[in-house]
């Protein structure tokens, strides 16, 4: 995932150095997507190469401070106003896993689904617990509100996942039943099917 | 057929709806069938009791074609087809009595005749003697079959054989025994036969000549076996002086035009008052049926609304929707009408023997008046249709939005109806007040205004219910819930409350009228002698002797141990030969008129004695008795005066007597006036008694005949059975003597029966209305009951909820009804108990007795009782929440 | 630790013969004080049956249901009713308020049914209505309230009188998201204060408010999600 635009948006607030950027990013997103410093500096270099930021020299502690350029500001504005495209969906490990589970013989798809659902539910519980207490419960500052919204996104995503898992489970059961009925009809006797 | 085919789906749907909701359908059936049943049974009993001309033929003339009666002294007779309906004759005193030959000549053909005499005779019994209905007729002749009903033994054949009925047999002469007649002749009882007309009076029958009736009776009758006796035959016999009862004429009467105009004017003339009353009763009954069955139809209408909507979606028109409702009413109404009439016939059949017991004449054959029953059935049908249509009409005006939003309950009450209700109620009060004041036919104004007032009250019921709900906060939980729920579902609550209220109003009004009437009767009753005392009077023109008087005294004291019997003489004012002595008394210097009235049961209005007779029969107090005794001892005369004149007569010491004789032709004769020393004493009672007591010396001076007048009885209480024995003992020694025992005012059995019927009817209708409302409310409240159960109400709570519904409907209805019932009830007592005359000026002109027991029972006890019944019979389990996953 | 609610190998069969329906098969289930447990499953899984058994509205075909140490089957109908008045509170999906009573009277219902005087019951009711945030609706009738307000009244009725066990059957079904969250916040608060809550729901978001989520399918417990936190989500500076 590219954090290019996020760092640009942070730099718009004022010039910062690498480590500062990292802290700032993680604070606002609740350390949900942790960054390592190396990743930050690599991205900064690329931004400088593209002319969106400019190095400002070194401060007293020896950190390299970066500043946003005008082109950078334009880029940030465009990013905020342009919706995130969904044409190329990110690779979803869970969907891939299930697709393979269904087609690979010898895999108990039901158990896969159930285990995943429980795990996602645990995560959902934790998100909810965080929502109830702490900064997100009563957002006083914009920072808190930001954190709360991020948390909500995690919640909704987890919920969507669980709903999708329920849906897959139901469809698979229906498919099995139909296959059973067809087999019975064709063979004239019931057949044991593993589920 | 087009019209009918449009009805078919509606009828089919209605029939299915009836079968689906069995409970409610049965409820409606009962509500409509019950009144139909009651009225049918009552009609049948009345029709059976009413022995019409045709039905009575057998008992009047046996198997004969006709009977002809010649009255002594009768000339030409003018009669209606049935002489009981009207008959008169010209007087021709010296015509010889017609005989059989005259009859044969008048009819122009040969006839078979059976002679018959009817009258009464005195018969000896175990205890003495008694009066009995007597008939002399050849009972062995087949023409007389049907006059008497032989239950034991055989018909008499010879002149000394007789039959008696069971009542007489129980008093003395039984089967095979001898019976002694007044003449001293003895007859033998060979059979027990019941008179087909009279049930409970002693009767005796024998061949012609058994009892010497021909000497005593003025009607000589023949039964004719002459083939059909036509109207012309009747007229021919009328000319002879005979009154004819002809089977042919009564069964198939000729047109009215052949009647003599004098008779024709008597017959006919329907009673307008009767019609008005019938109309009133029909309207009220219809109202009751609609109110009672209405709530059930309302609930059905509500549940049907979805079906109706589907019908509309499938292409049905609003008219077909209305038809569905109407069809429901038709189906249930027809079922109920048929059921009610059928069961009513059965009930009538069972009730006839019970009613017979209360009547002294035999009922006719079992009579089912089919035209009436058809009318009753139509009435039931009409009630059902109305009960179906009215709630449906109300439901169609429901708040659609509320219904869609799933909010249960009715629209907010509009203010229009209560205002109209207040207006009607006011009109009812005004009408009642007007009727109370008016001098004639006030009862009808009051009855009409009562209906108006009840209608007004019905319109006010919604307001009352809603107001009650608002102030329900203080009530305990279950009652609070019942009241509020009743207010929410006015469509089903209001008719039930109104039905109860209308019933209670009617019962209260009628109850007040009846009690006040009774009170008036009781208060204005004037005892003839003090309670428990008696008088044996020898009649006004007897020829009883002193020996007879002593015999009566002995017989009386023997019949009732402890009784004191005192023989008293009196002036014989009426004499057997027809002459009459008229006495009057006045006191010089005293009031113009001493007594406002006199007469009574003392055998004479002037007693002759040398001191005031013992006992309190004349109502003379101790001081008066002292003065009277001394006056009589001195050979004087004591005049009696009204109690209110006590001060004015205390000092009077002379009495002037005036005697006027009248001979047998009514011509006045000599007039004598004498003045005597004496006294004037007052009688404390208001009863009608003698006007004076004269000493024997004074009587001799006045020149009036003195005979035994009466025997005064006092000193012991005389029971009813003892009175009958006394009666017979006295009759044994003195033919004309009659015994009177003062028992005070006796409420006629009829009044008590009517009150009981009223109370029972009111209770049944109240119960019906309350149970209807409760049943419907419970089925409506299933969700709430489920919630209560889930929240932790004990299973017995359902009973509490059911009982609360019943209590709310019953209590509110009863209180309202009682309040409104007072208005016509009190108003009607004015014309009912108003007196246009009074005795001695002490009788009040208005009597009011409120039967608090009846009202308290209706208003308090009955609702509680109903709630109790519901409590006991409600299913205790609450419907649990049944959730399907 | 004693469980407030304990279902021990409970089976519930409806009907008989060919039309038999096994709503629950040998389910064992525990809920402790201070715990909110969610029950999830598709329709026909038996989750509502579990709740009605827990509340004593239904009796199991086999197994025991123990609430607060009391075996519900040993009590009669009256005893179970008393439990529902004093120890067990039930919240329905369609509120099930009695339209003929005001909000305060609906809330006071369990107390009044238990014999408490109207005045005292009303006081308790008002206090709870305050707690759920709608004291001003005390004298309104259910007809005059929105769905969310009605559900709050229903919850108030379920918790009045310090009930120890609260059973909620899809309490947010008829409500929008925000209102639903409010309701769950209320339930959670009660459980934190010491009550035991069992919540039947098909919304994962709402189930997540619970300490444990139990998954039912075809009348059997197929899985249960515990309460171990995910470290990566800790806020910087916080420790568990």
Automatic annotation (TrEMBL), chain B:
Provenance organism: Nocardioides guangzhouensis
RNA-binding listed as a keyword: no
Pfam families: FtsX
Protein family (similarity comment): Belongs to the ABC-4 integral membrane protein family.
Subcellular location: Cell membrane
TM segment ranges: 273-301, 329-352, 372-394, 415-434, 446-472, 493-514, 756-778, 805-830, 850-874
Highest taxon above the source species: Bacteria
Primary location: membrane
Domain ABC3 transporter permease C-terminal: 281-399, 757-873
A single GO molecular function term of this UniProt record: transmembrane transporter activity
Name of the protein this chain belongs to: ABC transporter permease
Keywords: Cell membrane, Membrane, Transmembrane, Transmembrane helix
InterPro entries registered for this protein in UniProt: ABC3_permease_C, Macrolide_Exporter_MacB
Lineage of the organism: Bacteria, Bacillati, Actinomycetota, Actinomycetes, Propionibacteriales
Cellular component per GO, a single term: plasma membrane
Membrane topology designation: Multi-pass membrane protein
């Amino acid at each position: 995932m590219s954090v290019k635009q996020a760092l640009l948006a942070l730099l718009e607030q004022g010039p910062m150095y690498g480590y500062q950027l990292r802290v700032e990013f993680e604070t606002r997103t609740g350390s949900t997507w942790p960054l390592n410093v190396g990743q930050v500096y690599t991205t900064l270099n690329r931004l400088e190469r593209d002319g969106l930021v400019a190095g400002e020299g070194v401060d007293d502690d020896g950190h390299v401070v970066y500043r946003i350029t005008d082109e950078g500001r334009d880029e940030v504005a465009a990013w905020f106003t342009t919706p995130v495209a969904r044409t190329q969906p990110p690779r979803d490990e869970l969907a891939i896993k299930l697709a393979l589970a269904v087609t690979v013989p010898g895999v108990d798809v039901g158990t896969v689904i159930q285990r995943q659902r429980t795990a996602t539910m645990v995560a959902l519980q934790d998100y909810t617990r965080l929502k109830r207490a702490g900064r997100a419960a009563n957002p006083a500052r914009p920072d808190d509100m930001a954190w709360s919204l991020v948390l909500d996104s995690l919640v909704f995503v987890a919920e969507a996942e669980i709903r999708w898992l329920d849906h897959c489970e139901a469809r698979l059961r229906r498919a099995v039943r139909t296959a059973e009925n067809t087999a019975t009809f064709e063979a004239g006797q019931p057949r044991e099917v593993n589920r | 057929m087009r019209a009918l085919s449009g009805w078919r789906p509606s009828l089919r749907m209605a029939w299915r709806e009836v079968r689906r909701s069995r409970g409610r359908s049965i409820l409606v059936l009962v509500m409509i069938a019950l009144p139909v049943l009651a009225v049918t049974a009552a009609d049948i009993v009345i029709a059976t009791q009413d022995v019409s001309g045709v039905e009575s033929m057998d008992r009047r003339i046996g198997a004969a074609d006709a009977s002809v009666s010649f009255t002594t002294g009768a000339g030409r007779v003018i009669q209606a087809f049935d002489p009981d309906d009207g008959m008169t004759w010209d007087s021709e005193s010296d015509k010889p009595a017609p005989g059989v030959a005259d009859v044969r000549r008048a009819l122009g053909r040969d006839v078979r005749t059976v002679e018959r005499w009817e009258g009464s005779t005195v018969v000896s019994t175990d205890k003495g003697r008694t009066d009995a209905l007597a008939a002399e007729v050849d009972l062995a002749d087949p023409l007389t079959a049907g006059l008497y009903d032989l239950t034991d033994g055989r018909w008499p054949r010879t002149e000394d054989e007789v039959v008696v009925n069971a009542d007489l047999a129980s008093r003395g002469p039984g089967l095979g025994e001898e019976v002694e007649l007044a003449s001293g002749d003895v007859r033998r009882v060979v059979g027990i036969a019941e008179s087909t007309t009279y049930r409970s009076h002693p009767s005796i029958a024998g061949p012609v000549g058994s009892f010497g009736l021909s000497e005593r009776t003025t009607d000589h009758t023949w039964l004719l076996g002459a083939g059909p006796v036509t109207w012309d035959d009747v007229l021919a016999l009328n000319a002879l002086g005979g009154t004819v009862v002809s089977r042919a004429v009564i069964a198939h009467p000729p047109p009215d035009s052949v009647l003599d105009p004098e008779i024709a004017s008597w017959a006919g003339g329907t009673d307008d008052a009767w019609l008005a009353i019938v109309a009133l009763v029909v309207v009220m009954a219809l109202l009751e049926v609609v109110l009672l069955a209405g709530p059930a139809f309302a609930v059905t209408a509500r549940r049907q609304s979805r079906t109706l909507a589907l019908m509309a979606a499938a292409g049905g028109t609003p008219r077909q929707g209305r038809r569905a409702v109407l069809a429901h009413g038709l189906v249930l109404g027809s079922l109920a009408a048929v059921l009610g009439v059928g069961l009513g016939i059965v009930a009538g059949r069972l009730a006839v023997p019970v009613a017979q017991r209360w009547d002294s004449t035999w009922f006719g054959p079992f009579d089912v008046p089919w035209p009436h029953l058809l009318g009753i059935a139509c009435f039931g049908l009409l009630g059902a249709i109305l009960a179906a249509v009215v709630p449906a009409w109300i439901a169609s005006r429901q708040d659609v939005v509320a219904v869609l939003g799933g909010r249960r309950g009715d629209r907010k009450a509009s203010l229009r109806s209560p205002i109209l209700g207040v207006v009607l109620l006011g009109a009812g009060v005004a009408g009642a007040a007007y009727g109370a004041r008016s001098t004639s036919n006030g009862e009808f104004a009051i009855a009409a205004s009562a209906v108006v007032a009840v209608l007004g009250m019905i319109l006010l019921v919604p307001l009352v219910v809603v107001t009650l709900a608002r102030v329900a906060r203080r009530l305990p939980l279950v009652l609070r819930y019942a009241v509020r729920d009743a207010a929410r579902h006015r469509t089903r609550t209001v008719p039930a409350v109104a039905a109860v209220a209308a019933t209670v109003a009617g019962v209260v009004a009628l109850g007040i009228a009846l009690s006040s009437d009774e009170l008036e009767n009781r208060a204005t009753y004037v005892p003839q002698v003090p309670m428990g005392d008696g008088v044996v009077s020898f009649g006004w023109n007897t020829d009883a002797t002193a020996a007879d008087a002593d015999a009566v005294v002995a017989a009386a004291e023997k019949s009732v141990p402890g009784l004191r019997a005192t023989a008293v003489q009196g002036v014989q004012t009426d004499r057997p030969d027809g002459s009459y002595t008229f006495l009057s008394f006045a006191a010089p210097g005293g009031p113009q008129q001493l007594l406002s009235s006199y007469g009574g049961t003392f055998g004479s209005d002037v007693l002759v004695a040398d001191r005031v007779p013992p006992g309190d029969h004349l109502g003379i107090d101790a001081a008066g008795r002292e003065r009277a005794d001394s006056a009589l001892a001195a050979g004087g005369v004591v005049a009696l005066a009204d109690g209110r004149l006590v001060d004015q007569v205390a000092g009077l010491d002379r009495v002037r007597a005036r005697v006027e004789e009248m001979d047998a032709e009514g011509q006045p004769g000599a007039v004598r006036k004498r003045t005597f020393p004496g006294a004037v004493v007052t009688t404390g009672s208001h009863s009608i008694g003698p006007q004076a007591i004269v000493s024997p010396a004074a009587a001799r001076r006045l020149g009036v005949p003195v005979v035994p007048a009466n025997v005064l009885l006092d000193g012991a209480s005389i029971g009813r059975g003892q009175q009958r024995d006394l009666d017979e003992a006295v009759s044994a020694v003195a033919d004309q003597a009659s015994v009177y025992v003062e028992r005070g005012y006796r409420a006629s059995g009829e009044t008590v029966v009517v009150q009981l019927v009223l109370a029972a009817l009111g209770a049944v209708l109240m119960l019906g209305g309350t149970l209807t409302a409760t049943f419907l409310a419970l089925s409506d409240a299933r969700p709430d009951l489920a919630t209560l159960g889930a929240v932790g109400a004990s299973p017995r709570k359902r009973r509490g909820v059911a009982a609360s519904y019943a209590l709310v409907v019953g209590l509110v209805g009863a209180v309202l009804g009682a309040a409104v019932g007072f208005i016509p009830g009190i108003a009607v007592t004015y014309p009912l108990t108003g007196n246009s005359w009074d005795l001695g000026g002490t009788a009040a002109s208005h009597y009011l007795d409120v039967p608090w027991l009846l009202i308290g029972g209706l208003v308090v006890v009955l609702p509680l009782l109903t709630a109790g019944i519901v409590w006991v019979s409600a299913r205790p389990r609450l419907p649990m929440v049944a959730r399907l996953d | 630790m004693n469980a407030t609610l304990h279902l021990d190998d409970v089976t519930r069969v409806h009907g008989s013969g060919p039309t038999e329906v096994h709503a629950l098969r040998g389910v064992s289930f525990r809920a402790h004080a201070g715990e909110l447990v969610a029950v999830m499953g598709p329709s026909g899984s038996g989750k509502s049956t579990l709740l009605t058994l827990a509340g004593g509205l239904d009796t199991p075909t086999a197994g025991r249901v123990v609430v607060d140490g009391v075996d519900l089957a040993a009590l009669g109908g009256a005893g179970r009713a008393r439990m529902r008045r004093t120890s067990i509170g039930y919240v329905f999906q369609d509120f099930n308020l009695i339209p003929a009573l005001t909000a305060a009277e609906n809330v006071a219902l369990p107390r009044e049914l238990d014999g408490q005087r109207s005045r005292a019951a009303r006081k308790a009711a008002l206090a709870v209505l305050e707690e759920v945030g709608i004291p001003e609706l005390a004298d309104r009738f259910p007809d005059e309230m929105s769905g969310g307000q009605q559900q709050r009244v229903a919850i108030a009725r379920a918790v009045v009188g310090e009930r120890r066990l609260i059973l909620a059957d899809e309490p947010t079904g008829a409500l929008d998201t925000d209102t639903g969250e409010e309701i769950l916040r209320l339930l959670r608060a009660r459980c934190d204060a010491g009550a035991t809550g069992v919540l039947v729901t098909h919304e994962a978001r709402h189930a997540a408010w619970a300490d444990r989520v139990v998954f039912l399918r075809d009348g059997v417990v197929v899985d249960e999600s515990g309460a171990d936190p995910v470290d990566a989500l800790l806020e910087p500076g916080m420790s568990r």
